[in-house]
Design goal:
Family (chains A, B): Belongs to the CinA family.
Domain MoaB/Mog (chains A, B): 4-170
Number of domains of chain A: 3
Largest sheet of chain A: 6 strands, mixed
Oligomer: homodimer
Shape of chain A: globular
Pfam families (chains A, B): CinA (PF02464), CinA_KH (PF18146), MoCF_biosynth (PF00994)
Helix content of chain A: 40-55%
Number of helices of chain A: 14
Strand order of the largest sheet of chain A: 2-1-3-8-7-6
CATH class of the largest domain in chain A: Alpha Beta
Strand content of chain A: 15-25%
Protein name (chains A, B): Putative competence-damage inducible protein
Organism (chains A, B): Limosilactobacillus pontis
CATH topology of the largest domain in chain A: Molybdenum Cofactor Biosythetic Enzyme, Chain A
Number of strands of chain A: 17
Structural class of chain A: alpha/beta
Distance between the termini of chain A: 47 Å
CATH superfamily of the largest domain in chain A: MoaB/Mog-like domain
């Protein structure tokens, strides 16, 4: 099956934003063996859109039109799609009711234009938006399918994953049986991981292996086509075994939605342990990541942000002479932050994060130099030196630090 | 002048890499008033490429073909372009000599295929590659221009800036250009903001106004085309004045990169104030956001994550009876968290965040119920009740809380 992706938006064609929706969708389609061989970006101009959509609808069996579903005057996608495929627009009354209630709940004034966001292509069906107001559309005629999706990535991604992929999988499975499994690995060079995986799976035929770099992990997807379910499962098991045997130090779980923070919170809960932290360069990001997991209260009471040296002394009681002697960016300070935070809260596990987020250097250490301490009751305190200078930018260095802290904790918990 | 950009590469259409070349080129073209109204990505398949390039060459006066200039078998761009426009390929002997010398210097084995990288379109002229081996091509005929550029961004960008833009600038009339300015507003319904803006700018002709919803702001872009710089500036000033006059309570700054956290940190620094926080549902996200700003150490020493009620008592010294009486999700608790954190750190400003991130309710309050406290030395403590239940998901509720805290602080600081 050939697909085309049409991305709509003046901000895209002017280069003001980078189009990440089309590659995300293309990767999803690839898992079903669908190639999106033609990907177009055009401004939100009615005439251009109608021409482009009409041409795509004529020549391809699957067309995606992405963006321009907002309530403002430059959101003209639905009208253009309807004209191009020769249908109208229908208001989803239930959704329109929900939009009105949502505005009322937020105590915000609603505009008449908001009704746009409750419309879908007549003769098709609406697609739910998990995080935003605008519906998507799924439309089929004469063996051709057209899908309308919202532009903001935070709305786009869940609609693709939750609404579009299950429908497409049904369509594709009438012809091809596809079984897949996702393995999750700590962040590291993708090329290295994939080369190693290629080497250990060289003699496994029938399993396609693709990788997808997330900000906090590398997801490796194993896909088997055209096999009965139990044959496919055995092939996937064999591939997983070979890969995990080789990559065990980096592997942390199976599943598309498997996140390291969730795995760590789950392990802490199972082992009946509580965690805290004292954070300098990460400034609360580690604790916030723990709190992003539903049920975090089972394993986390609170902790410290100790950005300045004075706060490390005042809130944690770290000896000023220790900091004086070793510097704030040191194994000793990271260890003390971990141990003192643990002690102050009276919990089982403490982490300390101290380092140079940049852009300036600190104590003669370049941006990216980070020490992480991990103190667990009844075990010797660990420290780790990280050099994240090659990850450009303050945010990348801080995120990388949080991920490394989670990795250290994960590896300690599975021992 | 209308341009089209054709990006070639299987890794692009499979979504394995995000296409940053096209937006970079589009931004450069926009400065010359050239709109790249059609941007296509296709795999490196000869037939698809010839069709796409031929169609673009017929309908547009300026066509860019990017990627596929390497020495390997799947680098078929030059041959496809030559066929599509009906010309041949010429070897730049001087460049070919240089490639051979370069390989010798690197003690690397050269492949016969490397001669591909010394070729350009016959009848056109080669474009220098500042960092890589492959030449680009500039080709003109019958008032149409076609430019071939390499795919790797580190080669692409210098060739666009150093080779293409000077040539294009000569072609394009000097005075035609696009001037734009971005205004930033607190998150709120986009439709409402844009309707209000439309009303106050109705009599301003020549300014195009578009909006783009960011996770933490609404960016409104004002664009003027085809005007001399000083005329454009006056038009933008007039539009900005009218909009900010109406939207002053929501406006927080000018510029593509203007973020509320940066504005707040800058205001604190100018007023010589230091900030802290005690965070429950946000779990450190407010402090982490402050620390995301370079130079945060000028205004922030540290603070508290007090997720459990016990931590609020232990770390901040909040009276258990106060929590008992009013609940953790209450104005009183939020105010105490703000005041006590400020007092403990001995700084000027404290914020308290307490509420229900969900998915479960707490103390009979539904997910999304949030109280934020703001304590500033010498002023009465403020509290604000937010009902974010309509923002779906734990992360959205927490992010919204952080943004609202920043807004409260911003408004207090500009008073």
């Amino acid at each position: 099956m050939n697909a085309e992706i049409i991305s709509v938006g003046t901000e895209i064609v002017l280069g003001q934003i980078v189009n990440t929706n089309a590659p995300l969708l293309a990767r999803q389609l690839a898992t079903l063996g669908i190639a999106a061989d033609c990907q177009l970006a055009i401004p939100d101009r009615h005439d251009l859109m109608v021409d482009a959509i009409r041409a795509a609808w004529r020549r391809s069996s699957l067309v995606f039109v992405c963006g321009g579903l907002g309530p403002t005057a430059d959101d003209v996608t639905l009208a253009a799609v309807a004209e191009a495929v020769g249908t109208g627009l229908t208001v989803d009354q239930q959704h329109w009711q929900w939009i009105q209630e949502t505005f009322a709940e937020r105590h915000q004034a609603m505009m008449p234009e908001n009704i746009q966001q409750a419309k879908y292509l007549t003769g098709g069906s609406p697609l739910k938006n998990a995080v935003g107001l605008a519906l998507g559309s799924w439309y089929e005629r004469d063996g051709h399918r057209l899908v309308v999706l919202p532009g903001p990535p935070r709305e786009f991604k869940p609609m693709v994953v939750q609404e579009v992929m299950p429908r497409l999988t049904k369509v594709v499975r009438q012809h091809v049986q596809i079984t897949s499994r996702t393995l999750n690995f700590f962040s590291r060079p993708e090329s290295q991981l994939m080369n190693e995986i290629a080497a250990v799976t060289a003699d496994l035929t029938g399993v396609t292996i693709t990788s997808y770099v997330q900000p906090d992990a590398i997801q490796v997807r194993l896909t088997v086509r055209d096999q009965l379910q139990d044959v496919a499962s055995k092939l996937l098991d064999a591939a997983q075994d070979a890969i995990v045997k080789k990559e065990e130090p980096f592997f942390f779980g199976v599943g598309d939605d498997c996140r390291l923070a969730n795995v760590v919170v789950d392990l802490l809960r199972k082992r009946n342990l509580r965690v805290t932290a004292a954070e300098s360069l990460t400034g609360g990001m580690f604790q916030s990541t723990i709190c992003s997991v539903p049920g975090a209260s089972n394993v986390f009471d609170g902790g410290f942000v100790t950005y300045a040296a004075a706060a490390k002394e005042q809130l944690l009681g770290i000896d000023p002479q220790l900091i004086e002697k070793h510097g704030v960016v040191s194994a000793e300070t990271a260890a003390q932050m971990a141990e003192k935070s643990r002690g102050k809260l009276g919990v089982d596990v403490g982490l300390g994060f101290t380092g140079v987020a940049g852009p300036d250097s600190l104590e003669g250490q370049p941006a990216g130099t980070v020490w992480i301490g991990l103190a667990i009751a009844g075990r010797p305190t660990q420290t780790r030196l990280c050099r994240f200078g090659a990850y450009r930018g303050r945010q990348a260095i801080r995120q990388r630090s949080v991920q490394t802290g989670l990795q250290m904790l994960y590896r300690a918990l599975i021992k």
